[in-house]
Amino acid sequence: MESVQPKYEVLNSPNGDSGFDSFSGKNLIIIVLVVLLLLSFVGVNLLDYLSNAIKTIIAIFGPILTPILSLFGYTTGAVINKTADVVSDTAKTGIDIAEGTVQNVGNLLISASKGGVDTSELDRVLNLPKTKSVDDPEEDTTANPIQNPISANKGGWCLVGEQAQRRGCIMVEDANKCMSGQIFPSKRLCLNPTISHP
Length: 198
What we know:
three-stranded antiparallel sheet; membrane; transmembrane; transmembrane helix
């Protein structure tokens, strides 16, 4: 009689991961999110703790890194200025405007590296309440052209003057151009204003 021995095969996933490795993927993210949710219910404000930690790190390393970054900014500004001088000398006509812009950027970097920012003054200015200034309305006058009807500036026949008891009239497009101020709707009325208007 032949002995029968059971065969055991180990099933592996195609990429060689076992079942426990899948736990580290999706399930780990869910567990982290549940823990964060529970902490927020308890009242632990992680963002507040994170901001306090960043402020502490800045307070510790700020005085150390500021001179280094200032030196780097000053050097960069000086290099930019010298490069702008060399390039502008080789192609002077087309680059004069660009040179001024690049010089301003270089000077901005140099002046920014000098430091001296008063953080308490900056905080005070940033925390000022925002107020809107309301301009007082200006009084409107009837001389405003928008209040005059369109027909007011309409042209007509302007009395130019009289010579030997004869009136002279010319056609004008704009009533404001008539120096005498006497505008008539027709040439006939302008020459003889005593006749009745038809």
